[in-house]
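Quarterly update, task 2.4: fe (ii) ion-bound model.
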Amino acid sequence: MSEATMGTLASEKEQALEKPGQRIALYYFWAAMVLFIAQIAFGVVVGMQYLYPDLFFNVLDFSVARMVHINAMIVWLLMGFIGCIYWLVEDEAGCDLVGAKLALLNFWILSAAVTVVVVVYLFVQIGPGEIETIWLINEGREYIEAPRWADIGIVICMLIFFYNVAATFMKGQWSGISGVLVLDLIALAALYLAGMYFTPNISVDQHWWWWVVHLWVEATWEVLVGCIMAWGLIRTLGVNRRIVTTWLYIEVAMMFGSGILGLGHHYFWIGTPEYWLTIGGFFSALEPIPLVAMVVHAVYDAGRHSFKSTNHPALAWLIAHAFGNFFGAGVWGFMHTLPQINLYTHGTQWTSSHGHLAFFGAYATIVIAVIYLAIQKARGDVWMSGGLPGNGWCWKWSLALLNIGVLGMTIALLVSGYEQSFVERALGGSTWSAYFQGQTTEWFVQGMYWRMIFGWVTAAGLVLLMWDLLTIGRTEARPIQVLSRPDAVAV
Ligand code: HEM
Ligand code: HEM
Ligand SMILES: [Fe+2]
């Protein structure tokens, strides 16, 4: 997005944003939203290809559209997280961002690199798999397919980002939240390196690749959203800082305690030693516990403050996050995490059901929540509590359609996955013909249709969300609601 477009998106009041880090955060947020649109557009294509396998044959094949769908998701969530952190770092540190110009340059380089990578995915859809392919086209590692040159660029961008954040806290002040945040960012960035290791041995390759995918979403990303949530609860509800920080420490301890060895639930069938069956089964089964703690914490806080908040859409999305995280990751993850069950469900639509609810519920929601906080301030710290005038219905409908859409897809996929596990694995004994039989049963096929119906509902919710983000608060004259607690806004 060019400077000019950014300018037109900004109202007069919007240009009043004083803090440089917060200005940069808005760039990241809009870029994240553009990629979110791309993710859903390609999601609709892959979903339709399940129903009409000829669709875009040889033009945009399933494998490529699927790759763009899930890579766009990872990148928009990462950009969203970077935006969240740039948004809160100055509040937490109590001073302006260090190296703001560098951060902006970083944004443009990252965005340009992402664009080039996607264009190459789309133009070079097939070809030989050689060492040059890894360097220039894609690495073939699901979710993090970016070619090696982009990997190196991403690492440099992350280092600059890390420097900016850590140096800002060093210049200003540290808090419990920022301490956890900075340590977590080190782990998050270091894990990315594990996904760059190349070996032709597929078992070894998968072994390391899971370090990124699992240890990101079930350890470092969870801790990151824990920090964002802690800060978000202080902002929207005026919750006492000492209470949220205590919760945060407990959640982090439990999250790492279970999530690190929980990695073993991906080592069941890839050629790693058998002891992973026990370790993975046991520790990953404990993973829902911190997620229960997180949901209890959020609901308790919101209830104690009678849901009186400075920003209703943000609070609603924070609550959606707490429940989405608990159900998508905790409950849906737990369902197939014991090896005795995973033997039947591994790699079926059951997995996809969990993947959709977990990524949306745990991560998309919280990024959207912080975007609402950012938009509120950008529009001039306007009223965003109850009784919004004009299109006050818009945020509620987009919240409802997006959540009902993803939940509907999740249930449809679970029905298909159940049938698939039953027919292909339990009855058919995982033979080649049972594989196809499992995917042609009536229940499986109907599940695919229902997924698509709810996929369209999700897409409609996204359209409304974009409209709302562009318009909310523009005509609002009332100032932001003041909460009675003194620590509400004074962070
Ligand atoms: C927000 C956190 C989480 C996210 C975003 C997430 C996402 C995913 C995704 C996308 C996959 C599919 C990976 C692939 O392509 O093969 C997956 C697999 C899996 N997840 Fe999660 N997950 C989360 C938390 C959890 C938790 C807490 C558990 C256990 C309690 C869990 C259990 C599993 C298992 C067992 C698999 C392997 C499925 C198979 O064998 O096919 N996940 N997860
Ligand atoms: C219009 C809505 C959407 C549709 C129609 C859709 C469709 C699909 C399809 C067809 C796949 C490939 C599944 C396979 O290989 O069998 C997929 C994969 C995936 N999608 Fe979506 N999707 C949508 C929205 C989303 C959203 C909102 C998220 C999360 C924020 C998401 C996250 C994922 C993930 C993580 C995978 C990989 C799952 C796995 O490996 O098991 N999708 N999606
Ligand atoms: Fe995992």
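Highlight for this quarter: Residues 214, 218, 265-266 surround fe (ii) ion (ligand 3) (CB under 6 Å).
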